[in-house]
Amino acid sequence: MNAEPRAAAARRGPDLARPDAASVHITHWHAPGRDAARALLDEVSDRWAAAVWPDGLLSFHAYLDTAGDTVLTYVQSARTTAHHDLVRTLRGPAAAAAVSYRLHTSVVLDATGTPPGAVVVATFDVDGADAQERIIESVARAVTDAPAEQREGMLSAHFHASTDGSRVLNYAEWTSDEAHLAFLEGAARAATLRATGATAGVRPIGFRRFHLHHGITPERSDT
To answer: What does each C-alpha distance from 204 to 99, 107, 124, 142, 186 come to in angstroms?
Structure first.
């Protein structure tokens, strides 16, 4: 078993490129308002922080969306069953089932290590693995083909495919809320919408913009 985890000091979010992250587990909850959402965020994060993590669990990050009514957690695991092993020991909202994903494709537009000021999570309902492949390829191409000035402020886009073949999730890092809002009005956004609309077996669920509130990692030994 790992040692008791600690709250991460950095505000950078998860290292999505880490090679030992075999799976990602994502859960979200809706709340009646910002105060309730913050209370939920704190409750879930506190329970994860107090738990003894099993081997293979790598990181936990929790987010509140800018509307103040949705909480999201993003958990990385080196062993696909490690998430379940911990969740079954928890109570309350922290014990909620997650959708399991694998990171499929990453488009890194800024490799300088700029910390994201906002994370935009867009989700698609899809009809199986072939549709997952098609929508990821189409949207990733639309992002990379767009002129730099049309996606200014986008740091990266990380496309996740659910293990059951029913979902695709894009975890996109941005420098700020304002940069993403400007993107929504531009031609690159229109190109991604066209790519989505032209892909059979894909139905956009929507997107939300989040800010990181808690990050937890296991204690690591230097020896």
So the answer is: 17, 20, 4, 16, 19
Worst-scoring range by mean pLDDT, 28-42, 144-158, 178-192? 178-192
Q: Does residue 212 register a pLDDT over 90?
A: yes
Q: Is 163 helix (H, G, I), strand (E, B) or coil?
A: coil
In degrees, to the nearest 5, what angle opens at C-alpha 73 toward C-alphas 191 and 50? Answer: 165
pLDDT above 60 (res 61): yes
Residues 6+ apart with CB under 8 A from 42: none
**Would you state the pLDDT for residue 187?**
86
Please state, in angstroms and rounded to a whole number, the distance separating the CA atoms of residues 135 and 19: 23
**Contact (CB, 8 A) for 59 and 217:** yes
pTM of the shown model = 0.91
3-state secondary structure 18-68: CCCCCEEEEEEEECCCHHHHHHHHHHHHHHHHHCCCCCCEEEEEEEEECCC
